[in-house]
Amino acid sequence: MKINPYTSVQPSTYRTTNSTHQEESRSSKQSKDKLEISTEAFDMQGIKDVEKARAARVEEIKRQVEAGEYKVNAQKTAEHFYDYWKK
């Protein structure tokens, strides 16, 4: 008695069924997707504006130091040191 080699009928049927199922699930997922931006994300976007303002302030201070116009407020500096070390 001669035994024929195994035929791959089952796996190909499974692949076809599985791919059809995946396509259906993809199409149903696509219709359900939506985007919500949290308030934290909006706040993070606002940080970029603060960084630009900070960079502008640093450039202004650099210009004043180079021109010899920058004056240090000794009283305010001392208060900040005191508050820092008081903690």
TrEMBL record:
GO biological process, one term: negative regulation of DNA-templated transcription
Listed Basic and acidic residues bias regions: 21-36
Coiled coil region boundaries: none
Keywords: Bacterial flagellum biogenesis, Cell projection, Cilium, Flagellum, Repressor, Transcription, Transcription regulation
Region (Disordered): 1-36
A Pfam family assignment: FlgM
Record domain Anti-sigma-28 factor FlgM C-terminal: where: 33-80
InterPro entries: Anti-sigma-28_factor_FlgM_sf, FlgM, FlgM_C
Presence of the UniProt keyword Repressor in the record: yes
Annotated SUPFAM superfamilies: Anti-sigma factor FlgM
Biased composition annotated in UniProt, kind: Polar residues: 1-20
Family, as annotated: Belongs to the FlgM family.
Name this protein carries in UniProt: Negative regulator of flagellin synthesis
Taxonomy of the source species: Bacteria, Bacillati, Bacillota, Bacilli, Bacillales
